[in-house]
Amino acid sequence: MLKVQNLCAGYGPVQVLWDINLAVPARKVVCVVGRNGVGKSTLLNTIAGLADRRSGALCLSGESITQLSTAQRARSGIGYVPQQREICPDLTVEENLLVPIYALGLEPAKLSAVYGRFARLKERRYQVAGSLSGGERKLLAFARVMLCSPKIFLIDEPTEGLMPSAVVEISGLIARCREEGAAVLLVEQNLQVIEAVADRIHLMNSGRIELTLDKFDEAQIVKYLGV
Amino acid sequence: MEIVTSQLANGVVVGTTIALTALGLTLIFGIMHIVNLAHGEFYALGAYFTWVAYSLLNKFWVSAAIGIVATAIIGAALLMIFYDKLKGAGPLRWALLTLGFGYVLRELMQLVFGTDFKLVAPPLEGTIPWAGGVYRIAVTVAGLLLILALALFLKKSRYGVLIRAIANNRDAAALVGVSTKTIYTWVALISAGLAGAAGAFMLPVTSAYPTMGLEIMIMAFVVVVVGGMGNIQGALIASLLAGLAQSLLTLIVEPTVATIIVLVAFMLVLVVRREGLQKLW
User: Fold this and answer.
1) According to CATH, what is the number of the domain A2-225?
2) For residue B216, which of B80, B93, B37 has the smallest C-alpha distance?
3) B133: domain range?
4) In A, residues 13-42, which contact B (CB 8 Å cutoff)?
5) Does this complex have an ipTM over 0.90?
6) CA-CA distance, B18 to A64, in Å (whole number)?
7) Looking at chain A, which residue has its C-alpha nearest residue B166?
């Protein structure tokens, strides 16, 4: 589904990622784990087109997306839920959901389908999105991206700072994305979530992938998390 | 008493004209982060294009529509040609570039149309007691309707939602497929079109002359800063305040002195409240 080959990237003059290679097949959840500042979010930002790629290639379903803009990547099937600034806080919940519907020319009926799936968003449809709780903001960010029917979800630390009930809800959503046929590239530090959803785990340090695990190994993961 | 009410009516006309120009300016800054120092020249272009169309067709409202559309297209083209090249550039680089655009446009207008005043008779004759000329009232109504249409467009329309999404969080909008270039083109068209509309409407009032853009630009810039950069409501209120103050002051002082007093008053507001008056509304 997604192939990242020899990717080097960063922001302006600062290089953050060095020679990253990974693949995320359909119906799999691939986790990227590492301490804060090792380049996990930069990896997702680069795939989504928000950080500067220096070299390397990105392919989605066999097609190169390396030269596409962020919006074109979203239209090609990249669905990114960033850790922060993931919604438009001054717009209402409904307007946030209308943005992908209008941008992609989707059927307005899709809005009802989203409300059927996320009842809490329907309750708060006329509320300004910036006033939502952390968990509700994440749900809104997921719902916006789900409207685009992406081939792959890029999800950056979705459970950070959330209450345990919201963590369970978000983990369920990730598992459901996989069941519905999408690939998932997940940056996560919560061990329970990693154990519950990950099919493969890449351990990152200093902008490089140092180790890849095909099954959950708490000792190794804890070493790379530095806890 | 009648002279005061007619000056009040005149103030609303001037305020509406400043508002149309200032709204375009604040829209393009709020959404594209461009400090457009050529914006006043779009106002002048609107007046000149309307004058050219009127010379050929002799129908004012059709000519005004042609003037507005032509200004919107040329203004947006000027900005969008450089958009890719200056992607990610800060407001200072845009300010310098548009300062150059403005200078070139002003000189071109002078070269093509000369320095004399281009006059067009008002399409509506007569006066209404206590309120002034019929045409001025019609211009005020048309300007306010345009502003209302813009507000409704931004609030209710498909493109309005996408424009507000980009203004609020550009990345979050792009991540769900919003093409910034398409939206910026719309914003540039609307922005230049609003200035063109102000110029077209004022043609029978002030006539067209090469420095008219520079004059309104100064006032529009000040009201945008006082109203809060990127704040549409603030720009509208500050414009109407400026227009009314300027017109009423002309009852007791020369028009030039009235303009100076209004500008100094607005500058004092900025000295006292650096963020302008935006938190008051």
Assistant:
1) 3.40.50.300
2) B37
3) 2-210
4) none
5) yes
6) 49
7) A88
